[in-house]
TrEMBL record:
GO terms for biological process: mitotic spindle organization. Residues 53-70 have a biased composition (Basic and acidic residues). Residues 1-75 are annotated as: Disordered. GO terms for molecular function: ATP binding; protein serine/threonine kinase activity. It comes from Serendipita indica (strain DSM 11827) (Root endophyte fungus). Residues 33-43 have a biased composition (Pro residues). This is Related to CDC5-Serine/threonine-protein kinase. The keyword Transmembrane does not apply.
Length: 302
């Protein structure tokens, strides 16, 4: 099987390094002894992602979608048609564009994350230590449910809200795990297409867990390219927005990883703006800068 652009960096992922700091969603420190940092080259940032050709600058910016499809809310007692699987809904954890996630407990009191969604086929096939584990899938008369591994330390959004920004070493350790998961997906012909801080979760030991495959796509034949315009504005690759005719493939995840790295060490996405059209224009023209008050190495910037 041919390797993907992430293969070289991903090879450095084992054994999985632990984060060189302690942090947890509930405020309890996670004990861990710092280990020597991995020595991969830093992943490609937005600066090294595909440049938009000059003639593309004249293309009209796509209109942002105004409507959001929301899944239904599950009952307090969630069970399948035969009542062989029974879960008690505890509370709401979050939502993406096509799904909502709830915390629930089974009959033994074990905590799980349950997701109402439309991405069963792809997620069920994924098995990697840095991908949220698919545990069960069942349905009642109204809804289809996914039971997933519970990531107790929240997402990278939660981490940045607490920490504001990370050191380069901390970001590097997270990126090595994220790259390993992405390379594994790509070698199994899966494009995530919505990698962002809100879709990257952390377990109790602060290990990366990639989740939310609602926009994921399967490349069924070598050379196939997807043409659906999808993703999250701050993280979406320029070829998705401005070259839908030629389509996109695995490279859109690499672009998003670069944006994620910038966001971790700076504290906000590189193309962030209050207006979606302005974000798209900055992505199209590759306009971003590093704040002068944040000291970063050239390796990180490039």
């Amino acid at each position: 099987m041919s390797t993907t652009p992430l293969a070289t960096l991903a090879a450095n992922q084992q054994p999985r390094p632990r984060l060189p700091f302690s942090d947890a969603r509930q405020g309890n420190n996670v004990p861990s002894k710092p280990q020597p940092p991995p020595k991969p080259q830093m992943p490609p940032t937005a600066a090294r992602a595909a440049e938009v050709q000059p003639h593309e600058k004249q293309k009209q910016l796509p209109e942002p979608k105004k409507e959001k499809v929301r899944p239904p809310t599950p009952p307090a007692l969630i069970c399948d048609a035969e009542e062989t699987l029974v879960f008690h809904k505890v509370g709401f954890l979050g939502e993406g564009g096509f799904a909502r996630v709830y915390e629930a407990t089974d009959e033994k009191g074990v905590r799980h994350a349950i997701k109402l969604f439309a991405e069963i086929k792809i997620h069920k096939s994924l098995d990697h230590p840095n991908i949220v584990k698919f545990e069960e899938c069942f349905e009642d008369e109204e809804n289809v449910y996914m039971v997933l591994e519970l990531c107790e330390s929240g997402s990278l959004v939660d981490l940045i809200r607490r920490r504001k920004r990370l050191t380069e070493l901390e970001a590097k350790v997270l990126l090595v795990q994220l790259i390993g998961a992405s390379d594994w997906m790509h070698n199994h012909q899966v494009i995530h297409r919505d990698l962002k801080l809100g879709n990257i979760f952390l377990d109790a030991e602060m290990n990366v867990k990639v989740g939310d495959f609602g926009l994921a796509a399967l490349i069924e034949n070598p050379g196939d390219r997807k043409k659906t315009v999808c993703g999250t504005p701050n993280y979406i690759a320029p070829e998705v927005l401005f070259d839908p005719g030629n389509g996109h493939s695995f490279e859109v995840d690499i672009w998003s990883i670069g944006v994620i790295l910038y966001t971790l060490v700076v504290g906000k996405p590189p193309f962030q703006n209050k207006e979606i059209k302005a974000i798209y224009k900055r992505i199209r023209d590759n306009i971003y800068e590093f704040p002068p008050d944040i000291i970063l190495t050239q390796d990180c910037k490039s």
